[in-house]
Amino acid sequence: MENKTFFTRDLFIRILTSLILGPIVILIVYEGGLALKFAILLIATLMSFEWNKITAKSGSSKYPALWKIIGMFYIAIPCTAILFISEQSHGNKILIWLLLTVWSADTSAFFSGKLIGGPKLAPKISPNKTWAGFLSSVSLSYFVGLQSVHFLDPKHPHLLIALTMTLTVYAQIGDLVESWIKRRFSIKDSGRSIPGHGGILDRVDGIVLTAPKVAFVVFYYNIFFQQ
């Protein structure tokens, strides 16, 4: 058995960064308005920079133009979805719920994978991700959904819980998609802009797939709040 120290310096930096940036992000989302729009613009700009840096590696792709088009959709769709949600009634609460759902999924998968280990989820795409991490994140999402019922006061609580669990699955898929892209271009992290976490693309991969789905639900099925 390998003897590895669990609480490393990198993990300390990761936790510290989360404790500092997490409340700032929540505050910006809660306030909304120009602050949120500016934050989305900044994040989209950083995502574009990292995407171009990754996909511009010489000889890594036969279709550089196609990767640029993919990048446009990969960045524009979730950013537009977040802005759309923010303009809806109680949009700030819905976005906070979305963030907490994705963050709890990431955190649970990370720590459960480290502590429990076990079979790999997708070893050819992301060697560090485990089934234990995936299943623990889905299990935790049920309790996140239960707490969200009190926060959002939905018309149909059971649907909100189911949606929370579904988003957790999509957040993990988003993580794997970004991992596949990085592996496709032979890099470990998308950047170094967030200490302990890598780049912006590394941090928002779960949001990329989940934000559009929440926007769809908000637009077509208003399940969130009582009349």
Describe this structure in words.
The chain has 227 residues and is mainly alpha-helical. The chain has one domain (9-220). Helix content is 73%, strand content 4%. A hairpin with a 3-residue loop joins strand 1 (120-122) and strand 2 (126-130). The chain is globular and about 45 Å long. The model has no long low-confidence stretch (mean pLDDT 88).
In short:
The chain has about 230 residues and is mainly alpha-helical.
Shape: globular
Distance between the termini: 57 Å
- Runs with pLDDT <50, length 5+? none
Beta-strand content bin: under 5%
> What does the largest sheet look like?
2 strands, antiparallel
Radius of gyration: 18 Å
Mean pLDDT: 88
Enumerate how many helices there are, as a single number: 7
How many independent structural domains?
Answer: 1
SSE map:
Layout: H1 9-31, H2 33-55, H3 64-86, H4 91-116, E1 120-122, E2 126-130, H5 131-152, H6 157-184, H7 200-220
Antiparallel strand pairs: 1-2
Helix pairs in contact: 1-4, 2-3, 3-4, 3-7, 4-5, 4-6, 4-7, 5-6, 6-7
